Amino acid sequence: MLNGSSRDKDKSLTRRRFLRLTGGSLLSLSLPFTWSKSAGAASGPLKVGGIFSLTGPNAPVGKTIKKGARLAVDRINDAGGIGGEIKLELVVKDGKTSQTGASKAARRLVNRGDIGFALGPLIGTHGMATQPIFGAAKIPQVFFGTVASFTKNHSKYPLSIRYGTRTILQMAPVIKYLMKEREDKQLYLFVPNNAQGRIYEDVVRKLLERTDGGEVVGVDYYTPFQTDFSPLLTKALNSSADGVIMGTGIPADIISVVRQFDRRGIDKDEFGFYTGQTPNGSVDFERQVLEKGMGDGIIYAVHYESENYERGFKGGHTPNQAKDMEAAFVKEYGHPPVSPPSGSWGWGSMYILKQAIEGMIERRGKEEVLSLDRRRSLPQEAISYLLPPSSSSEAGPVMKTPYGNYGFLSCGQFNIRLGVGTFKGQKHYLLKDRGYGEDLLGSLCS
């Protein structure tokens, strides 16, 4: 450990030095557990904890994330494990679609004393509640949600990374498309009356400022999970707006607005409907909107694509990891994942960990890497491998995932790029390839 004089000499440790110095040696005194010497031996399985919502309103997504992770573990282990030796073991706790449930699940995983990595949760506030818990325990966390604060806190919790998008990543391609292709320059915004909703509003306003003449002409704040959007939609239709943007990732809210569009017979080519990535991954949206023929014309950000999605452009292709994952689901369950993007969080996270450790083996040698403590130093140094130096604006090593092949930025953000999609004839139709809207993004680590 660092002594007092060492701290005085170097008050600004780099992330890599932090990981080297703390790997396997520091323990938060506030944690209510101890472990034996054998608990962190460089043998036995590498245990990965998962916080997935198996109950509550987000259970369909949480269960699919779990299935994706389980299938990846089985496939990796059946092939001999990571580096031909390290087997994986998944330990799942139910986050119960609540902040309290996610926090309790995180503490249970920490208290075991044998977890090397933690995956999840999905919802932003749940991730923010679990980040300090895993951070204090020095357990690397792979988070899925969109809340910007998670990566903004990376300097405080350098073992936390985000395998997923942020609000600005979701909205940049949509804003560019509605401005350039649709010429819908005046937008009405529906956002939930909470912190996440205000983040959406702020992001939309900033992105419109970076375009030619776009503006928000009205904003309505509503209670999350509201079912009656008739008054709000009436206000939007009576304004000068060319369309409405749903500033939320809650499927129920988006579904309620879609139903209002359908009841009123609103042509989405005449009055636009725009949102983030939810239509690309929500089981409820598929069942309650798409299967009932109400989704045609909605414009959304695409972060996952199946082979059977039709395209309006040349050159795009489905990532091989997406094909592999869907094939694994079909083999195991007889059908593709009900929410392929959700399955990708579980599947992709496991393969990111595998690729990171095997990248370390290639760089440092098998004997050295496989001798590392599988509960402490190996997971921590895998995060170090994934991330570039904190001073770099470039991404770390490329990871092959179902969302595409990208690296992590120095703040822990996966450098993913999204495209634009819609629905035609109750089927996904891709309008723009990945990277559309990239010129609007700016730095993802600022």
Describe this structure in words.
- This protein is an alpha/beta fold and 446 residues long.
- The protein has 2 domains: 237 residues, 3-Layer(aba) Sandwich (Rossmann fold), CATH 3.40.50.2300; 159 residues, Rossmann fold, CATH 3.40.50.
- Helices cover 40% and strands 15% of the residues.
- It contains 15 helices and 15 strands.
- Strands 2-1-3-4-5 form a 5-stranded parallel β-sheet, with helices on both faces. A 4-stranded parallel β-sheet has the order 7-6-8-9, sandwiched between helices.
- α3 runs parallel beside α13, α4 packs parallel to α5 and α13 crosses α15.
- The radius of gyration is 22 Å and the shape is globular.
- It starts with a helix and ends in a 14-residue tail after the last strand.
- The N terminus is likely disordered.
Keywords:
single chain; 446 residues; alpha/beta; Rossmann fold; 2 domains; 5-stranded parallel sheet; 15 helices; globular
Count helical runs: 15
The count of DSSP E runs of length 2 or more, i.e. the number of strands, is: 15
Which segments are poorly predicted (pLDDT under 50) over 5 or more consecutive residues?
1-40
Write out the CATH superfamily name of the largest domain: Response regulator
| Proportion of strand residues | 15-25%
Give the second-level CATH assignment, the architecture of the largest domain.
3-Layer(aba) Sandwich
CATH T-level topology of the largest domain: Rossmann fold
Main β-sheet, in a few words?
Answer: 5 strands, parallel
Query: What's the CATH C level of the largest domain?
Result: Alpha Beta
Radius of gyration: 22 Å
Order of helices and strands: HHEHEHEHEHEHEHEHEHEHEEHHHHEEEE
Total domains: 2
Q: What's the helical proportion of residues?
A: 25-40%
Distance between the termini: 31 Å
Shape: globular
